[in-house]
Structure formats: C-alpha cells, structure tokens
Amino acid sequence: LTARAEELIAGLAAEAAALTLDGATINWDDEPLAKIVPGRSPLAPQLQGDGALDALPPELRRRLLEAVGGWFERRLELLAPLRRLDAASTDPAAGPELRALLIRLVEHGGMLEREGAGLDRLDRPKRARLGNLGVRIGALDLFVPALLKPGPLAAWHALQMATGCTDPAPLGAMPAVVPLTHKACPPGYRALGKQALRLDMAEKLLREAHGIRVATASSSGRGSFVLDPARAVSMGLSTASYALLLRRAGFQPSVPRALAEGAFGPSAPPRWRWRPPRRGGNEPLGAVPVAPGNA
C-alpha cells in the first residue's frame, strides 16, 4: 500500500495518474481515494480521505491527500467563469439586485431560467456588467456559454453531489438535441416535450427567429412572418419541439386556411407573430404542427 501511494503521488506530480470522478468520489483504478464534502462555499469544497488510507503512515497519507487535492483543484479550474461570478457577487459596487442574481447563478452552476431570475430589476448598466462577466442574457435563459461543456458540467456535478443533490449527471458529450423519453432533463438543456435542446442552441434559434421578424417588419411592414424550421431540423429537433420553443418565447402561430375544395398544391405555411411573454404566466400547452420548410 505504501509503494502504491508513493507511485500515485509521483504520477500526480507528473500529471500522469488517471484519477476519475464518480459523483462526489475520486477514484484511482476504480478504488476510492477521497470523497468531496462541502466546504465554506459551494466552490470551495474539502476532501475527506477514504478509510482505507488510514493504514498509511500519517505523513504519507497527508502527502497523498495533498496531491489528490491538487489534482481536484486543477479540475475545478474549469469552473473559473463561475468563480468570476462568485467574486463579483461580493462586490458592494454591484448593488443588491445584481449581487442577488449573481448568487443565484452561482448556486445553479451558471444556468438560470430567465423568468423569476430578477433580471427585470437590473438597469441597463447592470445588465451590461452581467454580460461582461460572461453571462448570456437569452430570451428564455441566463447562462454562461463557457460552462456548457462536459468538463465544467462534470466538475459542477461533483460539487453538487457533495451537498446531497440528486440532479441528473451531465452528458459525456453535448449534442444539440437529446431525447427525453422517461428521462430528466440533463444540465445545460431546456426541455421541449419529448426532446431537450442545449441552451445555446435554443438561443441561436430564437435569435434567428427574431431576426426574421425584424427584417420582415422593415421590408414589408407586415406584423406576421414565416419561419423556416430547416436549421432546427438539421440540429435534430422535431418541428413540434421547435414550435413549442417558439411559443414559449412569445411567438404565436396563425393556422393557414385550408385549400379550397378541388384545389391542389402545398398548403400555405403558418404565419407567426411575436409578443413579449407574460412573465409569471403559464406557458401555452401543445404546439401547432409544422411541415418541414414551413414553420
């Protein structure tokens, strides 16, 4: 055991040892070394050595845990954007409203549903500061794009597991769309019926829709517009899920008239209008079916 401990210390010093995270437990060759436990703050946890390490001489045990702690701290460097928010939340110059929002963002791993987040209490300069801190203010969500990656999400999940949180584990890869049949929504995604869409991709689609809305109003003066779901479908999103995303962001469809009796050809595409969502209200249920190419 002593020889293996020395081997691991040397491997960690050379950054060659393959430790793994299993929830809140740090393993080496599938054997537990230490458990992550809450510390003075969510981003400053402590390590508790596994009981098997008690068989080591005290000084060697200390050195081993110190080396394992260094490895874990390097993993937590992936959460640097979140630590930046945490530091800003203690700045009195930020004001109570922004500080409260930053604290909530840190508590939720840098991802927060826009509704009820308190964004409406921030003036333009404070919103600009939020953006300068790396927070994307989306139509439906506030999120830090730098944290929407497997590494940061795994590090944050380990910290959450240390507090007893049972949220779903992050995905090993981060595809744009994942199925949700009988599954909880993974972190970094927004649930849309039977599918979940990654937060940054949801924002990309909604920005595109708003761009079409503005361009249509500028060119024709019309308040309604057609949205092509091609980009959403290319991501793997169904047209029903795409329509649900639009409705949750305040886009309202109008069903086109049916073809006259005896008429042939494709039906007219649905036209959409937008109005700001009622914050705090219930989201519309269901979605208008959308044919590919005719959202």
Describe the structure.
- There is one protein chain.
- The chain is an alpha+beta fold.
- Helices cover 38% and strands 18% of the residues.
- It contains 9 helices and 12 strands.
- Strands 1-2-3-4 form a 4-stranded antiparallel β-sheet. Strands 5-7-6 form a 3-stranded antiparallel β-sheet, with helices on both faces.
- Strand 1 (19-22) and strand 2 (25-28) form a beta hairpin.
How far is the N terminus from the C terminus? 64 Å
Q: Which stretches of 5+ consecutive residues score pLDDT under 50?
A: 280-295
Q: Taking Cα atoms only, what radius of gyration do you get, to the nearest Å?
A: 24 Å
Total count of strands: 12
Please state how the strands of the largest beta sheet are arranged side by side.
1-2-3-4
Structure class: alpha+beta
Largest sheet: 4 strands, antiparallel
* Chain-averaged pLDDT: 88
> What is the ordering of alpha helices and beta strands?
HEEEEHHHEHEEHEEEHHHEE
Helix content: 25-40%
Number of separate helices: 9
Strand content: 15-25%
Overall 3D form: elongated
